[in-house]
Fold this sequence. Notes:
Chain A is α+β, with helices and mostly antiparallel strands and 265 residues long.
Amino acid sequence: xxxxxxxxxxxxxxxxxxxxNVYSETPEEKGLAIxxxxxxxxxxxxxxxxxxxxxxxxxxxxxxIRKVTSRNxxxxxxxxxxxxxxxxxxxxxxxxxxxxxxxxxxxxxxxYLPAVKRVKRISSKNKSGPFMGSEFAFEDLGSQEIEKYTYxxxxxxxxxxxxxxxxxxxxxxxxxxxxxxxxxWMDKEHYRAIKIEFYDRKExxxxxxxxxxxxxxxGGFWRADTFLMQNHQTGKKTTLNWTNYEFSTGLSxxxxxxxxxxxxL
Amino acid sequence: xxxxxxxxxxxxxxxxxxxxxxxxxxxxxxxGQAFNSSDNSDAADQRLGLNLQTRLTHNTKSGNGxxxxxxxxxxxxxxxxxxxxxIRELNYLxxxxxxxxxxxxxxxxxxxxxxxxxxxxxxxxxxxxxxxGEDKLGQPMLRVSRLFEQSTLEFFALPGFRERAFLGPDSxxxxxxxIDDDKAQFQSDDGDNHVDYALRLSGYAGDLxxxxxxxxxxxxxxxxIPGNEAxxxxxxxxxxxxxxxxxxxxxxEAWLWKLEALNNEQSSxxxxxxxxxLEYTFFGLRDGxxxxxxxxxxxxxxxxxxxxxxxxNDVFIGTRLAFNDEVDTxxxxxxxxxxxxxxxxxxxEGSRRVLTDAKLSIEGQIFGDIDPENRSFGFKDNDYIQLxxxxxx
Lengths: 265, 393
C-alpha cells in the first residue's frame, strides 16, 4: 500500500521532471527536482533503530572504536528526531544525545550525563565540530532536510559499483556549516547516495564519504551498512558499520523526550 | 546506610549476574591526592583512595519496567572517616502511557548552573567524596511523574532522611569545627523518619528550559548547635524548611543564559538565594576542532553571611576547553572570588581517555587569601592535586 503510493509519487515526480525538461529546466531546478524525488522515496519510514560501530583510524593506522545505538523518528512537516545512546568507549557509556532537527532553524539538542543524572540543553551551533572525535561532523550525521541546501544538477555518470548516477552539487543554506559545497553522487534507480565530496570553507576538497552495502528494508527504504569517510587533508578516516536496522519499532514522541533520556540505561 | 547491609548486597552481586538480561557496569576508581605540606594538622599529606561501584539494570519483558541497583564502596588508605558505603540506587521504575512510577532508593538532579547546585535539593551531598558537592547519597523515594508533550510534573514522597557526614580534625578539608555527627538533632519530632514532599514541573518551550519546584521537609544542610556547655563540640541541627525554587536556561546560538533562585522558609527565618550566569562557547578554534567556553556565574544569598554561607556574594569565572580529539581531552579552569572579603580559590579539572576505555582525570584546587571569617577558611591549607584513574568493566 505504502509502497504503491510512493511509486505513484515517484512516477508523478518524474513526469513533472519530464514536463519541465521540455521548458528548458535550469540546472538548479533539475537538482532540486531530483532531490525532492529522492526525499519522497525516503518518506514514510516512521521510525527506525540501528546499532552503529564507529572505527576511527589515524594516519598511522591506529584504530579506536565507538559504539552507539541510534533511534530515529520521522516528523512530518519538520526535521526528524534522533536519539543516540553511547555504549563504548565505556567511560562515556550511558551518555545520550537527543536532537530535534529543524531545517534551517537551529536544532534543539540535549545531552544526558549519567554519572550526575543531569539533562543539559546544549548549543547546536557546533555544526562543523567532530562527532566523538571522528571525521564525521555533527552536520554530516544530522537529518538531511531538503531546505537545508540549495542544489545544482551537474551531470550523469557511472559511479560506485557500476551504478547509473546523477551528480548534484549542493550548498548549505543553514548557518555555521563547515562547508562551502558538497558534490553528491546518487544512483538513478533508487535515489541512494553513493558518494559525497565535502569542500571546506576555502573551497578545497576536505573529505569523501562512500556508502556501501545497501539493503532494502520493508517499505522500500534503502540503508547502507557502511559509511566510509576519508579526510584528505589529515589522512584520517572513520568507518561507520551499521547493524540491526529495524523499522516500525513502535517508537513515538514519548521516546524522544528530555524525560526519556534519564531511563535508557 | 548500614555498611554491613551494603557489603552483603555486594556479596550477592554474583547471584544477580545469574539472572538473565541483567546488564552490569562496574567502575573502579583509583584516586591519589597530594596536599601542600604547610598544614599544621595531623592529616596526611598524601592519600590513596579506591572507589568501587557497580550498576545493574534489568528491563522487564514488557519493556515498561526497569530495575536498577547501584551499590558504592569507598576506601581510604589513611583516613578511616572516609571509608563508607552507600546504595546510590535500588529502585523499580514502571512506565505507563503518560505516567511513570519509581519506588526505592534513587537520585535526581535539578538545576542548570556549573559552579554550584543551588536548587538541587532531593539528595544529600556525599561530603566524604570531595568538596565540589557533585557526589550524592541515594535517597529513598516514591516518585510519580505525569508526562506531557514538552514538560513533566513530578511528585516526590521522601521517607528516610540521609544525614550529611562530617570530617574530623585528622582529615583533610576539616572545616575547623568539632562536630559529633552521631548525635544529629532534628527540629521534627519524627527525627530522620520525617517524610519530606516535593513537587516539580520541568520542561522546555522553544529555547527555554525551565524547572519550578516546591520542597517541604528536612533541610539537607544542617546548622550547628553547641553539644555541651563548654562549647567544645557541636551537633548538626536539621531544621524543617519550605522551599520554592526556579531554574532556567535560555539557549541561543553559542550562548547559554542560566538562572537558579530559591526562597527558603524556616522557623528561624527566611532567606533567598540565587545564581545567575552565562556560558559562551567559541566553537571550532584551531583548525575547527577546539571548543573554548567562557563561564561567568554570580552567587547571591540574602543572609549576607560569609561565615556561615559559602557563596553569599561570590563570583565564579572559568573557561572550559574541549579538544574533540580521539581521547576526549577536556579541561576546566575556574576561580571563585568572594566579593565581600576577597577570599579566592582556583580550581582545575581535566580528563582524557587512556588505554582503550579507561579515563584519567586531574583535579586541583588552590586556596588563595582566605579571610579568617570566611566559611572556607578551614580549607586554606588544603591546596591539593588529585589524579584519578577510572577503570570500567
